[in-house]
Every structure is written in C-alpha cells, then in structure tokens.
C-alpha cells in the first residue's frame, strides 16, 4: 500500500462469465464497457491495476474433456479463449482512454506481448493496465490460480476477485434468504469449509505469500473503486 494507506497495486480477476452480461455465451460489449469504466475509475485513484481474464464464457477445459476431448488439448482451447476475452477488454479500456498492454502466457507475437514479468511491472509503473492472458500457460490449471500467481509475481497488495455477489456467503444468497455474508475469513476457513471462492490451488498460493483476497460484486457499477477506498460491501480473506 502507498503512503496514504491506499492500495498501490492490485490485480483484478474477471471471470469469463462476468463478461457475458445478459447473454448465455460469449461477450456482451456493454458489460465489457461497464467493467472497463470501473477499471478506469480505479486507475484515476492512482492505483496500478493488472487483470487476469477467464475464459468460461467461451470454453472450459473440463466441459471439453466431458465431451470426450483430451483434457490437456481442451485446456489449451480454454486458454486461447482467455486471449479473446483479453483482447476485448483491451479494446474497451482503450476506447475509454486507458492505456493497456496484453501479455499472453502462450506467446502470440502478432496479437500481443509475451508474458515478461519485469516488463509487466514497467508497464504498470507507467500507468498502463496490464492484461494477463492465457492463464498460467499450462493445462490443468485455472485462471484463478493464474490470478494468484501473477498477483504474487507483481507484488500486488491484494487480489480482487470480482464475482456475481458482494462477498462470500454461508450459502448461495440467490437461493437462501438467510445466507450470511462474511466480512472477513482466513485462507484456512475457505479451504476447510470448501467455500467456493477460488480453487484450492489459488487459495494456497495466496496463503503462502500473504496475498489478501477481496471478493466483491463486479456487476455493481463503481464497486471496484468503492472497495479500493475501503467502502462498500466485500469479504476479505487473510491469514
Ligand atoms: N486454463 C488452463 N490453464 C490455466 C488457465 C486456464 O488450462 O492456467 C483453461 C481451462 O481449460 C479453463 C479455461 O482455460 O477451463 C478457462 O479458464 P477458467 O475456467 O479459469 O475461466 P473463468 O472460470 O474465470 O471464466
């Protein structure tokens, strides 16, 4: 965190599903534009921002494997899906005047930069939003794990997990009226109670590296900036 106690650098994980908006597949340009605007507001606060974008709105490896495809091959398709989403997000951010770079864990030189850790840091120091695409570059992983990995490498102050609800609940709040929202949880709470926040690999990596995870509602306009100001509703996952 910087001298005002504010966040200096954060990583926002945006799932592929968050980009679908009201659609049930693919990209909803209005939704992508709204998230881009929220990111712009956070950049305007002086926070360095990087992103990991998922691909579940287009393709998931497990679904491909369930259909009979080789799992690793299906996962590579999933990683390519995240590159498409990253390019869409880049386009939306630049449309609202935010300078960006996409870096892919799978080199794709005609389309974006390859992932280079030190270069990514330089981009952020210059005020650019860096969008990390292609997950970790390895099959059998998820973009949640990629988010924990990149956030650690980039020495981020927090990993922001944008979801469809405003934090972690004792049960699905969309199904159970009595579900209670946690203000703070420990990494071990999440692992032991198998709370569906992020996969266990991502939680473990965050725990080992003391990386706070903040779960908030990415669908609420302005919520990202509110969380950065310490306002609004969210759940913090810490030691
Ligand atoms: N994927 C992968 N390795 C990674 C990250 C992602 O193989 O490091 C593949 C995996 O098949 C996954 C797909 O990419 O299903 C899309 O990512 P994810 O499901 O994490 O996206 P999200 O749920 O965030 O939309």
Automatic annotation (TrEMBL):
Gene3D superfamilies: Acetylglutamate kinase-like. ATP binds at residues 13-16, 56, 60, 163-164, 169, 172. Inhibited by UTP. UMP binds at residues 55, 75, 136-143. Pathway: Pyrimidine metabolism; CTP biosynthesis via de novo pathway; UDP from UMP (UMPK route): step 1/1. One of its GO terms (molecular function) is UMP kinase activity. It catalyses: UMP + ATP = UDP + ADP. Catalyzes the reversible phosphorylation of UMP to UDP. Homohexamer. Belongs to the UMP kinase family. This is Uridylate kinase. It comes from Acidiphilium iwatense. The gene is pyrH.
